[in-house]
Amino acid sequence: QGTRAKLKAHIHKMIDSLDKMARLGSDPKHGECVTFAGDVCNRGSWTRSVSPRPAGQLLEPLAMCWEATGDEKAGRFADAICNGVLAGDMFGPDGAFTGHFHNKASILVGMARYGSALCKRGDKQKGISLLRAAKKSYDWTLSPGNPNMAGSWGWFPERNAGNTSRTICEICCTADMIELAAVLAATAPLDPDLAGWDTLWDHVDRYTVNNLVDSQFTITPAYRKLIGQIGGDLDLAEQLVGAWSGYHQPHDLITFRRSDGRIEMLMGCCCNYSGTRGLYACWKEIVVDDGRTLSVRLPLSRESKSLGQQVREAAGSVTQTLRLKATRHLRVRIPDWVDPQAVRAETAEGKPLKTDFQGRWLDLGSLQADTELSITYPSRARTTVERVGGKSWSEAAAANKRQCRVHWLGNRVVGFEPKGEILPIHAAAGPAE
């Protein structure tokens, strides 16, 4: 109790300090609003050079604090910041936004978390309103109406700058969208109108495996060859193994410096820790246990206290092998691209199990601890044609975007055209369809 009281005091002290900095206002439609002055530090001097903006990046921790503790001060401040976002012009009627993607996406994550918490605490009207606002912007990032349309494998442009194209994706943007997709997907059971958002679990899977994981730095033969050509310190590079390439092109980990055109690979700023953040956002959602029901949301390997799951993708099929560590009702979500008729579930001894589907969820009923079973379904090959990223660092016309052919097997990118010129992220070609 003493530790909790101290933590609460620290949290309240931070909120009080933010409250002193905030500009309080009232909007006829949204009520009490909080914005912050657009102060900028220039050589040690603070100048008020831009208009007040909602400090939306504060939303997520405030929302999580309120959801976990019911703390009135945290909830009231989160509510006022959300009102400031909705009353302002940061997001258009269609969800559109311009400027730094990470800044806007993190605001959407906080808004969605607060909306979800409101629904769970009984205020579904406002909660669903906030969730819909976040979902509208989420959908816009992937829509043709966005001149900087994102790639469906998890590549999101570092900036949305009107009718222009950007060549790079920052890993913090991918991590934000993994979090946002997961928060929105998890709200599907809260209201029948949100049930269709369950499909976003496939987005979480795709973004994590194909863009986040594949941009983690390791020393490959291609990297050794590059260092041999341009000179460099491999011993130093080995200390960076496991870090993230902070930003990258759609098809290559190497970017070209704006000042002189030299190649570079940034591994710093908010991007580096965001790799870990994005991994955790996916990992914690793979298996969810409420004490009665185990819900396996993603076909990714994971060990939890109540379930072990190993996933094998080979020979054109996916096999999820599960072992219960506690007696639970078991539900397993099957990806959207799988035909339910093609799903086979069987015990460790090879005895078929009944496949009862509720939407995309395979309901396997109540199972005893130590039960082992497997679920198998075929992978599906497909190819998408997408236009993302520019061909240079400059904010060139949207027509300058690259046309990419993305080859898929299930939710995995197995081929990408054009192939990266220096450190390709994906193989050049995929399987025959």
Describe this structure in words.
With 433 residues, the chain is an alpha+beta fold. Helix content is 33%, strand content 27%. It has helices at 2-21, 59-69, 72-87, 101-120, 124-141, 171-186, 200-212, 221-230, 234-238, 269-283; strands at 22-27, 31-42, 45-53, 99-100, 159-160, 164-165, 169-170, 247-248, 255-256, 263-264, 287-289, 293-296, 302-303, 307-314, 317-324, 328-333, 344-347, 356-358, 361-367, 372-378, 381-388, 396-397, 402-409, 412-417. A five-stranded mixed sheet has the order 11-12-16-19-18, with no helix packed on it. Strands 13-14-15-20-17 form a five-stranded antiparallel sheet, with no helix packed on it. β13 (302-303) and β14 (307-314) form a beta hairpin. α5 crosses α6 and α7 (200-212) crosses α10. The longest helix has 20 residues, at 2-21. It is globular, with a radius of gyration of 23 Å. 38% of the residues are buried. The model is unreliable at 40-52 (pLDDT under 50).
Topology, element by element:
Layout: H1 2-21, E1 22-27, E2 31-42, E3 45-53, H2 59-69, H3 72-87, E4 99-100, H4 101-120, H5 124-141, E5 159-160, E6 164-165, E7 169-170, H6 171-186, H7 200-212, H8 221-230, H9 234-238, E8 247-248, E9 255-256, E10 263-264, H10 269-283, E11 287-289, E12 293-296, E13 302-303, E14 307-314, E15 317-324, E16 328-333, E17 344-347, E18 356-358, E19 361-367, E20 372-378, E21 381-388, E22 396-397, E23 402-409, E24 412-417
Parallel strand pairs: 12-16
Antiparallel strand pairs: 1-2, 2-3, 4-5, 6-22, 7-8, 9-10, 11-12, 13-14, 14-15, 15-20, 16-19, 17-20, 18-19, 21-23, 23-24
